[in-house]
Amino acid sequence: MASQSEPDYVFKVIIVGDSFVGKTCTLIQRSERYFKKDYSATIGLDFRATDIIIGNSKVKLQIWDTAGQERFRAFVKVYYRDSDGICIMFDKSSRESFDHVDGWIKDIDKEVENKNQIRILVGNKADLKSVVINEEANIKAEKYNMDYVEISAKENYQVDFLFEALAFRLLERGAKLQSDESLKLASREKRFYRDCC
């Protein structure tokens, strides 16, 4: 294992989705441990890094928060290409943001040749009355061969689990896990989703 300050692995992760689905709030909740109630839409890109311990490995995720507005899409697309993982986020209380997931994936597929890129569908705002049921989200995730994770950035519900699951998938993808490492997230309650409201 690396020294205290040095990670064993570094992965670049992008969060995409419509404006105001909670991308920035999720990133701030994970990196700074608070919920930012009032914020402006992200202009271009924002960046945070977070360390996660998986088994005997220290993983650093470099997480890029992208602007959801149409006018920034051409600029943001460049960052898809060399990313190891992508979280495609929608707002569970917004049918429109869920419907736009297909468009986000289409944009990503145009730019990314890395077939090993890990993608996770993320339903945020589980604390609000949902108009998108988990069955629908799971069907869409399966269609694109992704996991689905439901979170609430506001309540800090499963935010850590999201990034732990992503780090686990990235390590698993790279076949970098040692056979003797007990890396089962089952040591925590593995809840990818729950029915809400």
Automatic annotation (TrEMBL):
Record-linked CDD domains: Rab
Keyword annotations from UniProtKB, A to Z: GTP-binding, Lipoprotein, Nucleotide-binding
GO-annotated molecular function: GTP binding; GTPase activity
Any Pfam family: Ras
UniProt superkingdom: Eukaryota
Gene3D superfamilies assigned to the protein according to its UniProt record, in alphabetical order: P-loop containing nucleotide triphosphate hydrolases (3.40.50.300)
PROSITE patterns, per the entry: RAB, RAS, RHO
PANTHER family: RAS-RELATED PROTEIN RAB (PTHR47977)
NCBIfam families, sorted: small_GTP
Protein name: Uncharacterized protein
